[in-house]
Amino acid sequence: MVRFVVMAAGLASRMGKDKLALPWKNTTVLGHVLDTVLAAVNNQASALASTLEIQVVARQPIEKYVSEDSMNEFYKHSGVWHFAPNPRPLADTIKIGLQDLNSEVHSYAFLPGDQVGVTAQMLSACLAEVIKHPPDFLVPMTGETAGSPVFFHKRYVPELLALQGEQGGRVVLNRYGDRWRKFPVEESFFYDVDTPEQYQALFSQT
C-alpha cells in the first residue's frame, strides 16, 4: 500500500495571495494537482487502486479548491483532508501527513500542492514501479536534478517525523544517496508556481 500526501499548508508568501486557489485549467492549482493524483490512482489495476491512500494537508477546506465531482472521487478513495488553517513549516505538514499510520502502507509519497507540471501518466508509472518493487527511495529525475514526489519506504518514517522547521524530506533523502532508485521524467514534470511570473508563464501555456 502507498500513501500520497499532497502538501498545501506551507508558509510561502511570494504570491501575495493563496496561489493554490488560482485558476488552472477547469479547476484551481491545488484542484489540478489532486485531480492528477486521482487519475494516476485510477490508472492502476482495480485491485491495486484499493491499496492506495490519498491525504491532503491544506489551509482551507476542500470546497475552496476542488469541484464537487473531484470531491466525490476523492472521498470514494477514502481520501483524508487535513484542515490546517494556520501556515505551517514544511516539517509540520509532513508530520500531519504521517498521522494514523497504517501498518499496510510500505511507501509514502510527498507532492507539493503547486506542482502543476505533474502528469497522470508519469505519476502512474512511478506508482506502478513502487507497487511492484518497493524501493528505499523512488526519486523522479530529469538529468541530474531530483524532484517531487519522492517515495519513501516506511523504514524512514522515524527520520521524517524527526524533521524540524522548514526541513523537508530531502534532508532524509540526501543521507542515503546510494539507495535511490532513479526514475526519469521530463523537465516539465517539476514545474510549479512559486511566483506570479511563473504562474503567468505556465498559465499562458494551458
Automatic annotation (TrEMBL):
Keywords: Nucleotidyltransferase, Transferase. It comes from the Bacteria. InterPro entries: MobA-like_NTP_Trfase, Nucleotide-diphossugar_trans. Coiled coil: none annotated. Residues 5-176 form the MobA-like NTP transferase domain. One of its GO terms (molecular function) is nucleotidyltransferase activity. It holds the Pfam family NTP_transf_3. The lineage of its organism: Bacteria, Bacillati, Bacillota, Clostridia, Eubacteriales. This is Molybdenum cofactor cytidylyltransferase.
